[in-house]
Amino acid sequence: MNRVRVKICGLTRAEDVQSAVAAGADAVGFVFAASPRRVAIETAVGLCRYVPDGVLRVGLFMDQAGSEIGQIVRSVPLDMLQFHGSETESDCAVFDLPWLKAVAMEDAGSVERAERDFPGAAGLLLDSHAKGRRGGSGRTFDWSLVRAGAKQLWLAGGLDSANVGDAIRVVRPFAVDVSSGVETGPGIKDAARINAFVKAVRAAENELQMETSDE
Asked: How many CB atoms lie within 10 A of CB 96?
């Protein structure tokens, strides 16, 4: 079992970025789409100052004009983009940055179809929202639907410290992505919940590594 990366998404405050980094997050996410967690360009630039080298800065978008995304990419030092709407492969690929495509997990063929439709994606973010709807529902989906493919799988959708271990054991994802599961309110993260989430990820990871070494 390889190391499971942790992404804390929907960050809006400097203290929450610092908490995520201190807890050992591998990536932090900033929402630029319409959302209670949406941040302005100036805010995102300021928050990125608290993100050290080695921690990915990810920008989340949904069905936004290329000109708007381009302005954000030029202004905010992002390392990766994340698309949650009806974007096509060409829509996602024009910004010269690695990108993730969110996948509405409807059935066991969802990953295969997304790999076919988005060959240039660095990874697929598996979420619980219905196709064409926004992510961030705070609900899990049936993890047994996931079929591993060639791309990195980033698991999202209703994760928290209580269930992320089970999710990792079932899906074996490259990364897990949490937002509402470490919040006290939209965009307001809780340092204790972030720490508990990361610890739960590492515990599940260690358990699977021990199982593998015993085989």
From this structure: 6
Question: Token match 């937002």: residue?
Answer: 179
Tell me how many domains the chain contains.
1
Assign residue 31 a region: left if phi > 0, alpha if psi is -120 to 50, beta otherwise? beta
Indicate whether this model's pTM tops 0.85. Answer: yes
* Mean pLDDT, rounded, for 157-175: 96
Mean pLDDT confidence for 156-177: 96
Whole-angstrom Cα distance, residue 86 to residue 9?
20
Beta bridge partners of 6: 176
Residue 44 to residues 37, 58, 93, 128: CA-CA distances in angstroms? 11, 11, 22, 26
Residue 208: burial class (beta carbons within 10 Å; 0-12, 13-18, 19+): middle
Query: The domain that contains 56 carries what CATH number?
Result: 3.20.20.70
Indicate if 48 belongs to the active site. no
Residues 16, 127, 160, 177: which is the catalytic one? 127
Look at the block and give the residue holding tokens 């269930």.
Answer: 163
Containing structural domain, residue 170: 5-214
Phi, psi for residue 6 in degrees, rounded to 5: -120, 130
In contact, 96 and 80? CB cutoff 8 Å? no
Q: Is 9 a catalytic residue?
A: yes
